[in-house]
Amino acid sequence: MPFKPAAISVRERSRALGGPADEPGTLVQGRYRLSQRLHVGTTSTTWRATDESQSQEVTLKLFHSPREGMASGNDDFLADAERLAALDIQGMARVSGYGLHEGRPYLVTDAVDGEDLGQLLNPTPSGVP
Questions:
Q1: What is the pTM of this model?
Q2: H or E element at residue 80
Q3: Quick one: what percent of the chain has pLDDT higher than 90?
Q4: What does the DSSP 8-state code read for residue 120?
Q5: Can you tell me the distance from the alpha carbon of 7 to that of 43, in angstroms, rounded to the nearest whole number?
Q6: CATH 3.30.200.20 fits domain 24-96+103-113
Q7: For the chain, domain boundaries
Q8: Could you give the 3-state DSSP secondary structure of residue 118?
Q9: CB 119, CB 109: distance < 8 Å
């Protein structure tokens, strides 16, 4: 019998990777309303969200819960995020916000529509062109 991977929901995958199961409608820092989960990775979940103070669509990367003893990591993240927000480079999504939500770092960028890079690099399900 061929191997068949078990199907798990995005919520289960997020929990298995150490992240919370945020839901559409969650308000991050009283400003960004999560609307559509775009990707769950090993370190973060990427969302389409609405910046309610600007009434515009954004992309929000919400990192999974930090590991114990990583408080200084949050300081490093915030310093790096501040530097990224100061950049204005043509062709790069602008960082428009960052901070901590319930102790978890997040980064907000302009919403960019387009094709998924992973799908462009691996256009066939089997991985063989």
A1: 0.73
A2: helix 71-86
A3: 52
A4: H
A5: 20
A6: yes
A7: 24-96+103-113
A8: helix
A9: no
